[in-house]
Design goal:
Length: 166
């Protein structure tokens, strides 16, 4: 029940603070399927969705949420699990939207690429969140940016090697 409340807090916070980012993600999810354009845009959308917990952490740090959470009956483990779930649910929802759009428009290259990009986004989430929890968003920003650059390069090379890039 605590984790559900923490997830709702993050969703409400992201909705209030990041409407432009969420609209951008929706565009990246739907444009490749609807136009038959570059399938890599869907990969960008899933990576942006995997970054949502980092945005939520930034908002939490800015309003000193960590201090408030320690006064509540919430364990640190619950805070960590809620951020991981937020990212995993966001990536799963994004993958589902992209799969439905690709299915209804008949763009099979998006469907072939989707498992690889979704798994890459989840691995990115599993590697980036511990860095952000360990160092905080401000101190961990350089590690976060290096990890993001490595995943973009690795993802492009992997998709090109698999012959799935469009």
């Amino acid at each position: 029940m605590k984790i559900k409340g923490l997830l709702l807090k993050d969703v409400y916070e992201l909705w209030a603070q990041s409407k432009v980012l969420l609209i951008l993600i929706a565009v990246y999810l739907l444009v490749p399927a609807l136009t038959g354009g570059n399938a890599m845009l869907g990969s960008v959308a899933l990576l942006l969705l995997a970054m949502l917990p980092a945005s939520a952490l930034g908002y939490d740090e800015r309003c000193k949420w960590e201090r408030y959470a320690r006064a509540m009956p919430v364990r640190r483990r619950d805070l960590v699990v809620s951020k991981f779930l937020l990212g995993a649910i966001a990536v799963a929802c994004g993958a589902a939207v992209q799969a439905l759009a690709a299915f209804f428009t008949g763009h099979t290259e998006l469907l072939a690429m989707l498992p690889v990009t979704a798994l890459t986004a989840l691995v990115y989430l599993a590697l980036s969140l511990p860095l952000l929890f360990k160092f905080g968003l401000e101190k961990g920003r350089i590690f976060f940016l290096l990890l993001t650059a490595a995943f973009v390069v690795f993802g492009g090379v992997l998709l090109g090697w698999l012959g799935l890039s469009a």
